[in-house]
Amino acid sequence: MPDALAPSSAPSAPPTPPVSLAALLAREELGLRRIAGPEDADLHWVHTSEMGDPYPYLLGGELLLTAGVQLTDPDHYVSQVVAAGAAALGFGVAPVYDTVPPALVAACDRHGLPLVEVPPPTTFTAIARAVWRLMAEARHRELRRVAQAQQGLATAAARPDPVPAVLRQLTARLDGAWAVLLSAEGAPLATAGRPPSPDAHEALARLARVVNPPQPEPTTSEPAAPRTAPTGTPTPPAVPPASRTAPATGPGPKTTPAPASGPSPKTTPAPTPPPGPAPRTTPASATDTAGGSHLAAYALAGGQRLVLGVASDRREAGDHTIAGVAVVLLSLLTTPHQGAAESARAAALVRLLLGADAAEVAPLLGAGGWTVVHARPVAAPAGPDPLAAAALGAALGSALVDATEEGVVRVLLAGDARDIEPQPGWTLGASSPVPASDLPAAGIRAERAVRRAEATRSPVVRDRAEAGEGLASLITPDEARAHARVQLAPIADSPALTSTLRTWLSLHGSWDRTAVALDVHRNTVRQRIARCATLLDADLDDADVRMDLWFALRWL
In a 3-state reduction of DSSP, which class is residue 119? Predict the structure, then answer.
């Protein structure tokens, strides 16, 4: 059964971790010795009592110390101590007993309660002081662990792939746990760590629905008119869904019937039953255990209804606090920023869908020219990563981002991108600024630029301005296009040849770098260039020929 944790807006300090009985027994100056029961237990505090029945005064988790002043029935005494939840029993030898009563030893073995013999020189105060000291040391270690985890998670959030990086850091800080970011529908968006057993995986999916319950289907608020039964007897109106069931958290739906009231339906329609109990607040986090794993689910803020799931082999005192830090960071990374800019983008999309021209819509998104940026991750992508694409867009200062199936991210920037900065983990290619009507052509040039960047191992390559400056400005665009169509006619119908020739010329005839840019074998590049030379009847070793072809390719 999952346990719901109280909602919190920020991670709190970790609770004081318990002290193991083994650590206390290891303090040689105390001279303690376990003589019955399990070898270890978690001690949360120390309590001394000489009551015949200490049950009403125990909270659970104590090391109960006694000298047996009122010990008359050891079995009943131990059963009451176990029922109260005490962690262990310490029995002081002298002044009442010279040795630990054998009946008490047998009772502790029978009920599974650790029994510790306290020698005469050791005072109960010394034991309590030792426990508090061990707790303070454990508390200090846990606070240091949490502080280091916070620093590591914050550093991960600044990486080019922030969401996967935060999940990887979280699993490392939780000693090899498995972490998954789930969508509102329960589909995994990103994972890190070693997956748990199938049973734990299914239990974690159910636990995620506790903090992110399915949204109810919309229903009409007006009650239905009384229906007439076949016998002519009116029947009561349908009970609204809110009155039929009471929302409940937990792995399975729990329903509470609404109280029935009113006269018999045989004469007049029954009034609408009173509304059921108010819906309970959905918990921000919940925990459970399954398949030998400790499970936890945390709801992210931001309205996306995302859930962070964690499965670990063990649960430490500070794990909830560390996971809370990850929840805050993931919420910030995945929350869309609403505002005037978002409204303008929505308006532009609506106009495009209704048939408006791109040039007409562009002013809603920004003034001046536009720059297209193509980005490829340095590491081979496994597919489109919308979260990493959004993080890249935020770093470049734009929310107009598209992650393609090939793993390429396309970003649309308003204005000039001459001051674009390299982004860690990405290879960028940027077009020159263009008006909205030339955005398709700018996208092609940005794609060529990112290929050159990969071939030359440069973090950023900026496309040069379109013809219109320098010597090229001496020829009108119409004349340049006509010249290009005539000169390149033999290869114009082959995109592979024109693309290879353009890339090869842009890379100064380098076979290897052209192969890298086009993602083909270098022999394929040689064959295509030789084919171009044959079809064009041109000597590609001649610098004048290369310059003429390069000029023509820019207008094709």
Answer: coil
User: Which residue did the predictor score with more confidence, 359 or 456?
Assistant: 456
| pLDDT tens digits, one per residue of 53-84 | 999 999 999 999 999 999 999 999 999 999 99
pTM of the predicted protein model: 0.54
Query: How far is Cα of residue 220 from the mean position of the Cα atoms in its chain?
Result: 36
Dihedral of CA atoms 524, 530, 536, 539 in degrees, nearest 10, equals 140
What does DSSP assign to residue 406? T
* Residue 504: closest CA among 513, 493, 491: 513
Mean pLDDT score across all residues of the chain: 80
List all residues 6 or more positions away from 347 whose beta carbon is below 8 Å from its beta carbon: 364
* Cα separation, 369 vs 201, whole angstroms: 50
Buried b (16+ CB within 10 A) or exposed e, 59-94: eebbbbbbbbeebeebeebbbbbbebebbbbbbbbe
Only one residue has tokens 């921000």, namely 284
Non-local (6+) Cβ contacts of 140 within 8 A are none
Pairing mode, if any, of strands 188-192 and 45-48? Answer: unpaired
- The pLDDT tens digits for 29-47 are 999 999 999 998 999 999 9
DSSP of 175-214: TS-EEEEE-TTS-EEEEES----HHHHHHHHHHHHHHSPP
